[in-house]
Amino acid sequence: MDSKRILVTGISHYWGGRLAQALERFPEVEVVIGVDNEEPNVELERTEYVKVGAQHALLRRVVEAAEIDTVVDTRLVVDSAVTSSSKAHENNVMGTMNILAACTGADSPVLKVVFKSSTHFYGCHQDDPAFFDETMRRPHPPRSGIEKDIVEAEASVNEFAERHPDTAVSILRFANVLGQDVETSHTRLFSLPMVPMVLGFDPGYQFVHEDDVVHALEHAVKHRVPGTFNVAGDGVLALSEVAGLLGKPYAPVLPPWGTGLATSVIRRLGVEIPPEALEQMRYGRGVDNRRFKASGFHYQHTSRETVIKLGEHLRVHPVVRGAQEPYRYEREVEEFLRWSPHVKNARDKSVTALSRDQLAELQRLLTSFADTTGMDLASEPGTDRAVEAERRAEAAEDAAREASKRAARAEKRARDEAAERARAAEERARQAEDRARKAEKHGRERAERAREAAARPRPSGRPVEHYDDLAAEEVIALLASLEHEDLQMLREYERDHANRARVLSAIESVLARGGSRV
Amino acid sequence: MREREPATAALVPAEELKAHLPGVEPERQLNDWGRSQRIEGIYDRTVAEFFYRYWFRAEVEGIENVPATGGALLVSNHSGALPPDAAMIAKAIREEHAHPRPVNITVEHFFKGYPGFSTLLPKIGCVPAHPANVHRLLYDEEQLVLVFPEGRKATEKLYKDRYRLRRFGRGGFVEAAMRARAPIVPVCVVGAEEAAPVFAQVGLMKRLTGLLYFPVTPTFPHFGLLGMAGYLPAKFKLRFLEPIEFEEEGMHEDKALVQTVAHEVRARIQENLWEMVAKRKSVWFG
Fold first, then answer.
1. How many domains does chain A have?
2. CA dist., res. A92 & res. A153, Å (int)
3. Test the A interface: residue of B30, B121, B139 with most A CBs within 10 Å
4. Which segments within A199-289 are labelled E, that is strand?
5. ipTM for the complex?
6. Which residue, of A407, A423, A458, is where some domain finishes?
7. pTM higher than 0.80, yes or no?
């Protein structure tokens, strides 16, 4: 894998999030940085999120600062039901230009750009070939806004590729995606009780499973596959066949003439059929997926299997809904589980043996914890001792390193000088090392002890915290909730410090009442 | 709008791509072209069987000229409002050939956009006549493809012009065969002109119905759309001529050669047609 430092755009959307999750798992990948306008909503282990949209100046600084070698652009909107056409245009055309601008320049560290596109690039027309391959142009200029966007966005990616012949630019054109997690116009249409069709038409459809989409992007990141590729599962299904696989009847509800009018009526009923999908329902589309296969990619699902999977999901979904709450990523909860000292269960807390970084983190947390509870941690001797021991351990380590270095030097000299001296030096070095190791061990033990001491709650002389800040009335209000021993202790404390008559008499009376109750 | 070729189109040898063709899923009723085993079977056993055996009483010569394996391009003359010749050629290969093979019949793109036809035609083995489709079928899938180079000009022609071949397009079919290095098998069909004679074309009605053409035949339009298939029982004779092979690579780039071969194919079909018509004693009994 030549991609080690990867920037993923659209991290807060489905594809960006899933790709980042997949890339994190590769140990060869050093850095995954996700950018988007919004917070990510999937669980991410080590992906760093930077809140930045498609502002090229900012992105470029991120790219250069992090020495990003691979940029994966997953943001393209390919379904006009998702957002308004002006927003889609802004995202698809202007956004792509800005992201490419962030990778431009002679000194740019970017070696690879992967662009997620769509087979909507080809459109759907009467005189289309049955299988589009990557070398074919669109036979007709695009009509719907989304198709225009895709063609324009790809044009700027191709222009970038021409100007940067050393950068591997991969454009992946995905066919209609289906899956249980992704939501598209087509998954919505297929989850209706009947599959709507245009009367007299039975178009060919090709699908790609959501997992295959992620794997395809992964493949383009892992390997160097410059060029444009169609990504679609094997097999072109007729829409009637799709309905059969889903186990649903098909309903030719749309008339062949005046389809647009009928669509607007259906929209009133709550079924949205975007224009690019409507064209597809008439003429269908197939693509030649062989070039991407030839680059070494293996599909896990054919079009048919993809539809069957969706059918299974649609059947089981109403049954398990509610019973099986899907995992939701809550950043605060994850942070708590990862970092809070109160998490005892080792499963939730991957911290077992504390490294130096983690010790520092713990130190930071303890300080902030102390800040919130009002404890004065700086005066705690335990923490001081921990830091001191840590420092000493470090010093011992340094000494050991110095000693071994000296030993090496001594060895070199020993070749010319007497062997005894060398042995002596070695012996001394080993002793030094031993001593250093002991010191280190001792230091670590002491640090451990000190940390334990620091974590243990310190017995306080006051039964009520912030007691000294409380007014007499407030103290009196609290008294009823205190135990007998605490009350006695409090009486001593009050007598020694503030010695307020009202408080003392109140304590006395509560004590007297408590006595009678017992 | 800027439109450019993909600057970095991945160049993979065509031979290698052949290995990556999608596998056949045996559970499927349809293939990737939309062809339905079930519907084609029903159609073949009923309509095609009836017309081939009893109505047109088809007679076939030279069926051995159709190769048993590999891609081959069948090139035929064409006629009739709803032409019966394509179905009869396909049926002849299914019935008479030693290794019956399915034939992919190329049809106008128009049918893909017309409701009803769009659903039905692919199911019984018709594919839109796009060069890319022909190439994939011939080269990658190594199948039989039937083309009518005259195209619409042939089905529009009137009864008085029968058996006179129209222009053979721009020779695109020869180019397709050369590119795929598949042989061309010329086919002559006699009888189709009389089975579905067209007496006139009504331009106004064509525009109103949105059809390709609006012919007046013995049964159409007065018997409605079905009248288009109301054929007269003429005797059908089919003759498959010797294949023309294209072994060399890159022949399709020579435009002059393409035109010469197209001309040659047309001349051979025309000669044989006239010979067959001359030998025919009766339109109805052969």
1. 3
2. 6
3. B30
4. 204-205, 207-209, 227-231, 237-238, 250-254
5. 0.88
6. A458
7. no
